[in-house]
Amino acid sequence: QVELVESGGGLVQAGGSLRLSCGASGSIVSINSMGWYRQAPGKQRELVASITGGGTPKYAVSVKGRFRISIDNTGKNVNLQMNTLKPEDTAVYYCHADAVGYTGFAFDYWGQGTQVTVSS
Question: Is residue 57 within 8 Å of residue 69, measured between CB atoms?
């Protein structure tokens, strides 16, 4: 079993910054990638940013240049620095990991979600 524990999030005014953190623990053999998705009310969950264990990032067009994702040397802790936040960034943000457990198979794992609210 793989567990993802998130921290960060909260309420911020437009133009402000927030930092999200996520740590993976449990029966992990390896992590292919970690990242953040978000889901706003009435909308589908969408990729915000992801990063491979080797450190190659990928960003949604809407956040490129404003958000920065990073992963530590263990490959099990990922951070998302969110700058110049906009009201449209308001959503529940979910940590995601594409991880290989003791079964030898890769699965998608999700955190419980953390609310980010940007006021105008």
Answer: yes
* CB atoms near residue 46 (< 10 Å): 12
| Tokens 């449990």 belong to residue | 26
Q: Which amino acid is at 45?
A: R
User: What is the maximum alpha-carbon separation in the chain?
Assistant: 47
pLDDT of residue 63: 98
Tell me the pLDDT tens digit for each residue of 63-109: 999 999 999 999 999 999 999 999 999 999 999 999 998 888 889 99
Closest CA to 81 of 70, 71, 89, 92: 70
Structure tokens at 92: 């529940």
Sign of the Cα pseudo-torsion (51, 55, 56, 59, in order)? positive
Which amino acid is present at 35? G
